[in-house]
Recover the amino acids of this structure.
DNA sequence: ATATAAATTTAGGTTTGCCTAAAAATTTAC
DNA sequence: GTAAATTTTTAGGCAAACCTAAATTTATAT
């Protein structure tokens, strides 16, 4: 993994995320939109990145990252999310303020810096928005590691599964309007019983600590 | 103080330091050497920076920063030194390892980030090499500019910083067991080469006059 | 004072990343 | 299955930073 420019890392990161939903090659237009550059600029960059060996690309057929390309993308995601943790946990920024600063910090090149930052932060598994942080080998934590009761007010997390799969529990959360893939925004945690006030689909509702322990999030 | 590129900040910082000793305009060659670019590149950049209003420059007459230019330079120095403190104090880097990483971090643009970092670090007045850190208004703390070679036998002085911050020199004095805050007792000065016999931590050792000139004391 | 040397600028190129406008390929619509 | 719409690529340019080689200006030395 040699050195990549600011811009190259941004392209690789964008293609990495876009290729998660679309299973074919990532389209020129999709990249263009995501990076707010013109499609012609993207075409040119794709040719350059292909020559560097970080992606496969044939005219009109979209792009797919190579192993090396994915490694660079994941490393950039890792840096981005670790810095977001730093900004929120150590410098007391709000979770909504940190993205743009992390967009800059994610391009600092020093393997040692990233690894020591991770250690300093106590090896966090998720960033302030609940997104998983890959380890130094590029391995993401399994989402089932994190249940809702381990999250903090201010976080927004995605429902990834349930621990209790009984019909009673599933019916209960379905009635509340909570389903797989939904975003839960944590508003407040009651001190005395650890129940949570949350917002889902714009609706405010209360969840007991027992319910929270049974919802896996990411 | 609008936004400046990575490169512009580096030029302004270099000119700022160079204009501290040379009281006339800073020469093209001096900048070229300090930034390891060719003189012709510097000439071109000086014209551009003049148009931006950050320095005065007339053909063959060298460059001088305007108030705005100096503000940018000092702000960059501030960021550089605060990040060096962070790396040493919080991430346990050695003081000889941090300069290159700080060269990158100093260009992150967020006033808020810099100020909160400073607060997180406890408003340090000096970086790990003993260099003074300007406050958010660009004001430097008063720093002693007394170097060891100006001291006399019999004196005991405290190490406050180094003039030469190269890894070679830092490693050298680290090997000798000399660090920030250490007490140096001057035993004898050799007449013929002005080398010093000193005692640190109870150990006797010899320092060349070149080494002595590069150690700031108080 | 003139010749030589050194410093600086000019001229002409390169690479990275971006743009607009036009052409070509692909997809969709009838 | 062709025509229209959309997507993508090509062609040609531009700005920031860099370079080499050739002038030009300034400094130095006899
Ligand atoms: Mn983010
Ligand atoms: Mn980015
Ligand atoms: Mn430094
Ligand atoms: Mn720098």
């Amino acid at each position: 993994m040699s050195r990549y420019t600011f811009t190259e890392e941004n392209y690789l990161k964008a293609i990495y995320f876009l290729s998660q939903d679309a299973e074919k090659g990532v389209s020129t237009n999709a990249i263009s939109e995501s990076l707010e550059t013109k499609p012609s600029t993207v075409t040119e960059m794709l040719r350059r990145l292909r020559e560097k060996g970080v992606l496969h690309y044939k005219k009109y057929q979209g792009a797919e990252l190579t192993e090396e390309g994915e490694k660079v993308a994941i490393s950039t995601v890792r840096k981005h999310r670790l810095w977001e943790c730093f900004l929120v946990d150590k410098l007391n920024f709000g979770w909504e303020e940190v993205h743009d600063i992390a967009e800059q910090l994610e391009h600092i090149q020093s393997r040692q810096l990233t690894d020591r930052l991770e250690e300093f932060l106590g090896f966090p598994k998720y960033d302030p928005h609940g997104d998983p942080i890959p380890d130094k080998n590029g391995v993401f934590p399994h989402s089932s590691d994190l249940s809702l009761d381990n999250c903090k007010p201010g976080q927004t997390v995605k429902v990834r599964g349930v621990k209790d799969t009984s019909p009673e529990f599933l019916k209960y959360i379905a009635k509340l309007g909570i389903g797989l893939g939904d975003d839960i925004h944590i508003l407040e945690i009651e001190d005395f019983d650890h129940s949570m006030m949350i917002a889902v689909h714009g609706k405010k509702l209360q969840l007991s600590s027992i319910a929270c322990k049974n919802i896996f999030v990411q």
